[in-house]
Design a protein that fits this description.
Largest sheet: 3 strands, antiparallel
Radius of gyration: 37 Å
Number of strands: 5
Strand content: 5-15%
Oligomer: single chain
Helix content: 55-70%
Structural class: mainly alpha
Low-confidence stretches: 1-28, 51-62, 231-242, 244-250
Number of helices: 7
Strand order of the largest sheet: 1-2-3
Shape: rod-shaped
Length: 250
């Protein structure tokens, strides 16, 4: 009798334990938990959209386009003024008529328009976008150097014209020191009057100095914008033995 009582009473805890455990096919669906997960997903999507909008507003606000437009306008102006100077006298050297600087920067501005029209992809996922950015940065740096050289050449000739003493013979002959018989003389072919050299050409040299200085500044700003857009946030180093969250970041 005692054994029968124990055998009858023993299945009760097992049945209670089995009843307390949920079945494997059923999932614990909590509506509050589902709402919080949906809200977090929506916040994450909104954050990505806002980040994309911020980046698009940064790249499409008109400032990179303004740089390309200024480069094109200044490059065309420098080229036109240089050919006008060549029309005054054919004796001017190529370094004194910096049409080469204007043409180079015009090509740079066209590449800037292509870069502005290129669809942005984060982290530079395409090689074409990276190549265009790198080429535009390098050509802007080249344009900066070329414009500085043009300013140096034109400044040198502008200072010489201020000390000229010109006489009209068959052509216009100018000397730096008329009292010195062995002083260096400059002959300008195809000039009707020496005033074209001492007034008109002098004014064009001054205009070239101003335009090339402005263009050099624009190229410098474009290099800074490209550098900031690529390296605005970068890692300065890693500390060994520390987790990823403690890496130094600027």
């Amino acid at each position: 009798m005692g054994m029968d009582a124990k055998s009858k009473s023993s299945p009760a805890p097992n049945s209670q334990s089995q009843a307390g455990k949920p079945s494997g096919g059923q999932q614990n669906t909590d509506p509050v938990h589902e709402k919080t997960e949906n809200m977090e997903k929506k916040k994450g999507r909104q954050g990505k959209v806002n980040a994309g909008q911020k980046h698009n507003s940064h790249t499409c606000c008109g400032f990179p386009l303004l740089i390309a437009v200024l480069q094109l306008l200044l490059g065309v102006s420098i080229t036109v003024v240089a050919f006008i100077m060549t029309g005054i006298s054919s004796s001017l050297l190529t370094r004194e008529t910096p049409h080469w600087a204007g043409i180079i920067v015009c090509v740079v501005s066209l590449l800037g328009f292509i870069l502005y029209c290129t669809t942005y992809l984060p982290d530079e996922n395409t090689s074409m976008q990276f190549i265009i950015k790198l080429a535009y940065f390098l050509l802007c740096a080249l344009g900066l150097v070329v414009c500085v050289l043009a300013v140096a050449f034109t400044c040198h000739h502008y200072m010489q014209i201020n000390n000229y003493t010109c006489t009209m013979e068959d052509t216009c002959v100018c000397k730096l020191n008329p009292e010195d018989p062995i002083a260096r003389s400059f002959v300008y072919m195809g000039v009707q009057d020496c005033s074209d050299i001492t007034s008109s050409l002098k004014l064009y040299f001054l205009l070239q100095i101003i335009l090339n200085l402005t263009l050099a500044l624009v190229c410098l700003i474009s290099c800074f914008v490209m550098w900031k857009d690529r390296y605005q946030v970068f890692y300065v180093g890693f500390q060994l033995g520390l987790p990823a969250e403690q890496q130094l970041k600027v």
